[in-house]
Amino acid sequence: METTTEQTTLAPFRIDIPQDRLDDLAQRLARTRFSTPLPGDGWDTGVPTAYLREVVDYWRDSYDWRAQEAALNAYPQFLTEIDGQQIHFLHVRSAHEDALPLVLTHGWPGSFVEFLDVIGPLTDPRSYGGRATEAFHVVIPTLPGFGFSGPVHEAGWDVPRIARAWAELMRRLGYDRYGVQGGDIGAAVAPAVARATGSDGTAGSTVVGVHLNGNVGVAVRELGEEELASLTDLERDRVRRTAEFMQEQFGYIAIQSTRPAALGAGLADSPVGQLAWIADKLREWTFPREQLPHEILGTDRMLTNVMLYWLTDTAASSAYVGYASAQSWGEPLPVTGVPTGVIVFAGDVGIRRFAERDHAITRWVDVEDHGGHFAAWETPNELVEDVRAFFADLR
Asked: How confident is the model at residue 376 (pLDDT cuts 50, 70, 90)?
């Protein structure tokens, strides 16, 4: 990576969307041509037309972007250029100077808004029932190709390259010792940062610990009868749900990893199309699945997440980065030796015995009756508690 003064600048950033773009959105929402409902108009074929109409009515008539924009701008945000790519990030320092720096990485179809409810408890633990010794300085980068880090202008932004960018970002911020956390794509990026920095779990390691949630140790290959018989009931259920995912839901990955431009052409022109593409996965991956996604995540927060894709025209580039250039599922990776903690909520499918092939697992928590894929968004307090507990002996 080049390290010229110009490229290493960390420039303060505020979101300020031109009014004409918001006016254009309002006009598009008012002119929406909804699809004719399929038989049953249920979630088994995607987002029901009736549900879309309900959410779009709220988006058009009640949602206030300017209020959301102001709320987002309450957090310190910055832009920098790393390896030729603009990177947007939040950097919220704790008042406790000896706090441990922590990088939080989102996935698809999420954004930095996933983490808004954990920033306060992590940086200011005493105000949220914790101790000053549990404080973190929080860094939340936006993945290349997503939101204000997008679009990408060249190929090759795979997981290792993103990890190297995060390591460079932390170096520029002056942090030479820190933890990493992530879910979804972030669950691949976080341990890759440890690999990128040569961290091995010894006292001098740059990355002191890796905390993950969700898709860690997923059984994407077919298991033999003997291996299946050795599993616990919980593990067998997760294998079953993984197989169902591969059969019923893998289509979005196939499209995004092979034809992101074709998909992006439609989503860049239709805000309701962008909403439907994201809401479908929000419903499938939140818990319980039977509950509507906006009821779990909050309608305004859900729409703000969608807006970050719409306003930045990053539907195609987020698909391209997230899947077309990512490492294959199940590909063996070197174990770094860095202590790794994992929490798997009820909506996710991670299995410890499979995760241990790629990670030095020192803490594993299974939550069987609540919580979904978007841990920081759905169950922020419980995620914070687990992060605190994991890093307690690693500071």
From this structure: very high
